[in-house]
Amino acid sequence: MKLAVIGLGNIGRGFMSVLREKQGFLAKKYNLGFSVVAVCEKDGCIVSDKGIDLKSVLKVPMKKHPSWTGRKTLDVLSSSAADIALEFTPGNMKTGEPGFSHIMKALGCGMDVVTSNKAPLALAFREIMDYAKRKDSEVRYEATVGGAIPLINLYRSTLQANEIRNIYGILNGTTNFILSKMSEESVSFDTALREALELGIAESNYRYDVDGVDTAVKVVILANAIMGKDISFSDVAVTGMREVTAETIELAKKHGSEIKLVGDVSQLEVSPRLIPQWHPLNISGVLNAVMLETDVAGDITLTGVGAGPRETVSSILSDVIELGLKRQA
Amino acid sequence: MKLAVIGLGNIGRGFMSVLREKQGFLAKKYNLGFSVVAVCEKDGCIVSDKGIDLKSVLKVPMKKHPSWTGRKTLDVLSSSAADIALEFTPGNMKTGEPGFSHIMKALGCGMDVVTSNKAPLALAFREIMDYAKRKDSEVRYEATVGGAIPLINLYRSTLQANEIRNIYGILNGTTNFILSKMSEESVSFDTALREALELGIAESNYRYDVDGVDTAVKVVILANAIMGKDISFSDVAVTGMREVTAETIELAKKHGSEIKLVGDVSQLEVSPRLIPQWHPLNISGVLNAVMLETDVAGDITLTGVGAGPRETVSSILSDVIELGLKRQA
User: Which of B105, B118, B181, B218 is catalytic?
Assistant: First the structure.
């Protein structure tokens, strides 16, 4: 199975590093061999139809690699022998680019696509899926929601007989860390945020998290992917967590609840909500937790690491393996 | 897809009732049609190669059904046109019968098997799986562990790249209800048990639950199914929950923990353990919660309804649909 890796940030590097580690395991367990035939960044690509040594890509600066070329991603995809394109570029929530163009190009070339890039899916879900269908290809995106939590594939592969009545939960680890900190140590938002920044849990673009935008993007993807809707980012009513004070949290605790930033897919809403202390969604720290309300299985909750380059690769590889097995069949 | 349903207790009835409700949905979504060609109980079977009207089976006493025959299950399986046999008889933890013979017979006749019956799997896992492999058939058993929680299929279909380092958690809803009650209302084991019995959460054979046997059986199945072991019931060290007093629970709470009856698959142990209040396994009421420790995705926890005839059918149908799609391909 030939792969083109687009984007060499944390996720792209994490993917190649885990793929190196797991190649023997995947060959033995699934009889699947993977070779990376292109690695692309903004300025150019490393290209080799015979397969690129992953160790060399992880060690050497890209432009110094013997197989480096200044050709751009879209051009390289046009002539690539890849079966699956992996889109890991950073998302731009205004345009969806460059991910959108990469995905459409790869589909146009007959490739399947696996992506961790939320922006194109939040802005143009139906357009992408319709085009994939027309090209008889697939776009998989488990990694866009909940990091390591296999939410979409859980729905697809284990709850087949169920209709999903709602999906809601904690979809952003940074805000959950801040709210947990405020609750456990009775500190202010600013103090908790500072600690999150120091620990590298929050990044410089933390506004995206605390204002609820990241959660809203995931609500859009889940609504379209699992609940059959056709919505975009602007359809979600978003309230972030800045108004939540240590005093409000204290009051909530007195009544047996915690305050969490919750994304609610059937309501198309992101807002701080009271979660009773006994509730499966009452999870602290950087974890994510998502509840699926179903008509047969009742409520199923999945909890796990919502971010992290290594953990997220579990979701990416799940999609890659599924597509690999399909292509092999 | 032709089905033989063996065992007409709560699960068997629940299955047929949900199948009736979902037939249109499954036909539309998966292009799968199911007809039940045999329904078997101890004294005989309802048999019709053209398909049995499920409503009639659910309404009329079996022996009054027009397609009733006194022929026994093994005999009916021998000549049945069924593609998949569903084994729902009660388990006998000494012999594994009658489930074991039903499963082996169905495999011998070229059928796939889906079962909710823990006893045969806990006593003879490898023997059953080896025979299935030789016959080029499959035995699926999602419903044997965790009721509605799709634990085995989660592992199989969404964590493919991971090695599982441990599985542990609360695998029995009755004991979790009793321990939660003791903790929340500071009552004794006897008082909590009485309430569980009154509510129908505990049954007359509650010893099986409180002494840890039910949890141990699930540990055996998970060890064999997910962690590649080859063990049987006698390999598990089992301590039940009778020694846990309201005072111990009070003391644990003072130190920020709850006491839960935990099955630990890598340790092959069932015992009451301290679970910190912030931990994802700290779940109260009749819910089950299971944590998978993985090498790539980190810790993933699944929480849901651990029993119940309707909820468990979600797991059964997941297996039936997978097998149906495979046979159709």
Answer: B218
